[in-house]
Predict the structure of Prephenate dehydratase.
Amino acid sequence: MLPIETIPEIIEQYELGRFDYALIPIENSIEGPVSIAIDKLYHQSTATVVAEIVMPIVQNLMALSENIKPLKIYSHPQALAQTREYLRKNYPESKLIPVASTAMAAEFVQEHPNEAIAAVGNERAADFYSLKLIAKGIQDIEENNTRFWLLGKNEPKINLSKSSDKVSLALTLPENMPGALHKAISTFAWRGIDMTKIESRPLKTKLGKYFFIIDLVSDDKISFALEELESLGIVVRMLGAYSIYEG
Amino acid sequence: MLPIETIPEIIEQYELGRFDYALIPIENSIEGPVSIAIDKLYHQSTATVVAEIVMPIVQNLMALSENIKPLKIYSHPQALAQTREYLRKNYPESKLIPVASTAMAAEFVQEHPNEAIAAVGNERAADFYSLKLIAKGIQDIEENNTRFWLLGKNEPKINLSKSSDKVSLALTLPENMPGALHKAISTFAWRGIDMTKIESRPLKTKLGKYFFIIDLVSDDKISFALEELESLGIVVRMLGAYSIYEG
């Protein structure tokens, strides 16, 4: 197990063959897609998704002592957003300070023992930086999950319960085909293939030019849809055909 | 003109009637949608979009002195990502440090005059924090634009060149309608209404539940499509029918 600081670096190191599998966050139920991961995979990687793991996210308030009344609370903007109501209600006097990551927030609290400060983050961050948990599970919305994709050559043995099978594709549409997206979606719809998600991401060439990430429920008819898409001049990249596991 | 620290607060203050217009970033050509703005508009606002303004984004390197050799360079993760190649090539020794905003980076540089540090941000940040520009226009990709939405009761006079007219909608699909998204898109496609963008955003209730933001080229037939959508049980919210201006 090797932790790496940023998501693009995880993918870069995996592409260089530094390890057999890479685990990257792809989507959170509250914040939405992790764009930096999706873009890196599409633009600068040929990696294949071999499994999806859905993990519940739990936020905690942590400090050097359990009895601290924090004047300032540090965390990543998303973690602060996810615990905003709780912090407003229980710590109305505390100033919320956004920093670049929850780990950096915990590290900052550890390094400033004489200040009345706290951080919001997961239990591993508290353990790693020797902080005490002041309050557990403080996220405002109970249902908070993150989807992770496991990149690899083949699926390893995963000791979690399997829920269903999925196929993820990236589509690039021809420039001058009116209604191209409608045609692409139709190839799945008329075959009764269930599309669970569509997401547009900028091609980074010009504002208004996109590629599309599409998730489909696993289905034998997908291969015929892919043939039809190709004949329409739509470029399809198979990101992976994989099982979903609940963490 | 009143600057406000975060995008959700801009929308909240606008909803409270604190000012007549609010300008919020919606999408960047490289980074993609500004999810926090779109979600706030959808979930906690009834504001109407009265204009779209597309502005070029220029990143600069700034410090207290022009002759500084920065050991550390601070900025928002997106600004660092947008200037990564330039900084790697010209400042291979500098450590890149992500902070919560480009303004915070510039402020930090101003407040630490004895350190060899710099920030990446726009010219206004340099002016405001009395920093000198070491290098101008250092973004790696030339074409870098951000779309802003102007919220208001009606369109003000805008001294910029108008390019085209658009309609933006938010759709929520019925739970148990197979192929609902395909049906929704078909109501536009078969009428020849040009859809320029579709984006899925989490409903924040459960992983895998989305609402959709759809951009259409202005067209008289849109009202008929909206009637058809309603009859299908698809909930449509009109975000705005507006003109696009190039900044």
About this structure: Chain A touches chain B through 45 residues (CB under 8 Å). The mean pLDDT of chain A is 91. The CA atoms of residues 2 and 125 of chain A lie 16 Å apart. The first strand of chain A starts at residue 22 and ends at 28.
